[in-house]
């Protein structure tokens, strides 16, 4: 939304306000309030917007009025206008604010002023003195080890990412179930199922969660699997899957995360790569009136033994394979152990706890093991950046197959907060009502969900005032859509959060102690250093604006150090520049650092794209598209960012053997591509347009230059549209 279309605030008239559909009396009142704020704070300062957002704007006013105020205020401001400003009193009450008020001078010496002024200094301290920083954060989160670490970080040439918490033994699930931050009667999980939107929210206390997890852990042991065996979960993210996840970890096994949207071939690939010995799944996934089969996909994937949970009913409505077990029969194996505490299996810190998958550029998904360290990285991000604490209620529509699923287990529970889960689509008013009724305080989103909410006005009439902050991840966000989102919750901040499965969390984010600009990141994450590489392949100075491939400081708490099916060193470190004696870690995203110190993401530098928050390699898509029609010579799949911002659109360049009657061929081909991709890869993927080309641009070594295509399609506004 271009600022030039709006008047400066001191030239807005009552008639301008009325023209937005606001009746005369209210328009006059709003205009009077606006004049008062402009008199006190000027017509174009961040303080002007702060007071307008707090004192003038409400969710019930037309969004066009919110736009008039925001874009009018910042008409001549330049890049990165702050949409939210921290308030000193509230800042002191945040997790980091309280820590700095107690120990800021100890950490930063005479430089320490207050939590807001000294935040950037503290972030730099978190990188320069990891030993003190991480010891402090683990203490603040009350993490308990059965054997404490010998130190926080041991650097060695053979481990470019360092060895973290050497010698420690721990169980993250045991820490999730501990009572150091809560009582037995505190609520651990709040949920509601779609279709029951008028019923009270359902709740599970800490005592009920503990007993449920212990019961499943005992039942798991009864299967006789070797400790450390991989056990998959292919289910929606609900109370059962959270209990199962924690039980697998508590009992010393390894979770294999598989998204419930995957086709059988994708499920099979992940089961084979992880050597899974069993899988938890569900008979069907309810979606409105529909029942989407899940168990049948798992069977088609030739899975190992399946434990099958009935969807919302007490018994299964389907027949099971020989050797598979129904959920009631599984629990019945240990009915004598009900209520008995399960003794957690404590393991060395570098033992695996979860295998997740991220698309590589080779076509196969990378199998990324999380160690027992990684859950504490996820929780630390929540503690530091989303300010998650005891009493918070955290909702983030996701699935255990994606990194944010395990994150949503650990970040609330390790910080004494509650998880809020909605069993159903997050796109409609049912979810919006759940946010209100569950009194959600931290709401996580992906931009495509927000776009649908805005189009449908899903939150209309619901009270989201309990929200303290939003989180956003998965794809590029749009300024206008996120202005709308902030306005639904009385202008609470949106904490942008960008990282990766192999990071266990984020490397760049926002903070409740810094001004937040829309669709921008305000800081490197605590404990992380960011480096933008110039044209020469070396980092540009950290205080200079620029754009280029992002590299990360190698010493990152919780980040991966191995891959199951690829050479970790080759993917993340080989060929990277050395800075201060340490080789930097490759990430692969292009980032921009602006003149005001914010960061903007510009997509992947390699040939992996991000579609609706799901990373996928071009090769995976091209393999399927090439087989759709025998008249196709070759294809190139690229993700193209829309000119107005927002998530990447999938564009397929096609070289035909015979290019006669192209127009009709393209229409039919678009349908065929979408059908094939949705059936074989992911039902959420959609081709936006097809661009016919006489040939694909290639390097001297015959590699397709998808980056060149991405640039051309972006400049041509995505070329031909269908």
UniProtKB/TrEMBL annotation:
Pathway: Phytoalexin biosynthesis; 3,4',5-trihydroxystilbene biosynthesis; 3,4',5-trihydroxystilbene from trans-4-coumarate: step 1/2. Keywords: Membrane, Phenylpropanoid metabolism, Transmembrane, Transmembrane helix. It comes from the Eukaryota. Residues 187-551 form the AMP-dependent synthetase/ligase domain. Gene3D superfamilies: 3.30.300.30, N-terminal domain of ligase-like. The keyword Transmembrane applies. Residues 121-176 form the Acetyl-coenzyme A synthetase N-terminal domain. The keyword Transmembrane helix applies. GO terms for biological process: phenylpropanoid metabolic process. The chain crosses the membrane at residues 242-263. Belongs to the ATP-dependent AMP-binding enzyme family. This is 4-coumarate--CoA ligase. It comes from Solanum stoloniferum.
